[in-house]
Amino acid sequence: DAGVIQSPRHEVTEMGQEVTLRCKPISGHNSLFWYRQTMMRGLELLIYFNNNVPIDDSGMPEDRFSAKMPNASFSTLKIQPSEPRDSAVYFCASRRTGNTGELFFGEGSRLTVL
Amino acid sequence: GESVGLHLPTLSVQEGDNSIINCAYSNSASDYFIWYKQESGKGPQFIIDIRSNMDKRQGQRVTVLLNKTVKHLSLQIAATQPGDSAVYFCAENIGGSQGNLIFGKGTKLSVKP
Fold first, then answer.
1. pLDDT band at B96; cut points 50, 70, 90
2. Most buried of A46, A58, B9, B68, CB within 10 angstroms?
3. pLDDT per residue over B25-73, tens digit each?
4. Among all residues of chain B, which has the CA nearest to that of A108?
């Protein structure tokens, strides 16, 4: 079974541009999580979904960030407009709802905003 | 095992020695805990988990100890190998089966050959 798939793996963009990160969770997993990782703040939960419904978005830094999950096999995290302080590695992770079992992480999307 | 500012706590051990990585968690209502390993350029990978009704769990070469009284978690790695070099995170589950995992800042393990 394929793991969590994220794209792009690397993105370099200029301040003010729109960035869209994509995630395909593991088939059968209906909880999906977006994390951001920086040296200063470690792994921060941005938002998570259960059965495509956002449950907690309190970690989303500001209105420039938005996330959607239109179906069980796809989610996007969008930053518009992007700023240099958004530079980080963004991870998507999934697990089965109702199971406090492990989260399965993707390989991450490394974002650099110049 | 919590980081301060830019610097991760680092544990340096000799190959073959045992390693102990510590973690303090924040919420006394947390019901489930996981240790993750993250190698450079990769996503975190599951190592071992423990539920709050247990105080010890063993895996292959790894043991997790949970002390709920002082909200402390530790990961013991036996016979540490160079391949164990990575950053290790503890995570606590808050909110039951509908909840989310909150991660600590991590500890960097460096294994000297």
1. low
2. A46
3. 988 888 899 999 999 999 999 999 999 999 999 999 999 999 999 999 9
4. B43
B100, closest residue in chain A (CA to CA): A48
CA–CA dist B105, B22 (Å, integer): 11
Q: How far is CA A77 from CA A44, A94, B45, in A?
A: 14, 15, 22
Choose the closest CB to A42 out of B43, B46, B106.
B106
> Could you tell me the pLDDT band of residue A34, with boundaries at 50, 70 and 90?
very high
Query: Which of B90, B21, B94, B87 shows the shortest CA–CA distance to A100?
Result: B94
Distance of residue A64 Cα from the nearest chain B Cα, in angstroms: 23
Structural contact between residues B92 and B27, judged by C-beta atoms closer than 8 angstroms: yes
Q: Which two tokens stand for residue A1?
A: 């079974």
- B43–A50 CB contact, under 8 Å: no
In contact, A19 and A76? CB cutoff 8 Å: no
What is the number of alpha carbons within 13 Å of residue A97 lying toward its C-beta?
14
SS (H, E, C) chain B: CCCECCECCEEEEECCCCEEEEEECCCCCCCEEEEEEECCCCCCEEEEEEECCCCEEECCCEEEEEECCCCEEEEEECCCCHHHCEEEEEEEEECHHHCEEEECCCEEEEEEC
Tokens of B62: 């790894």
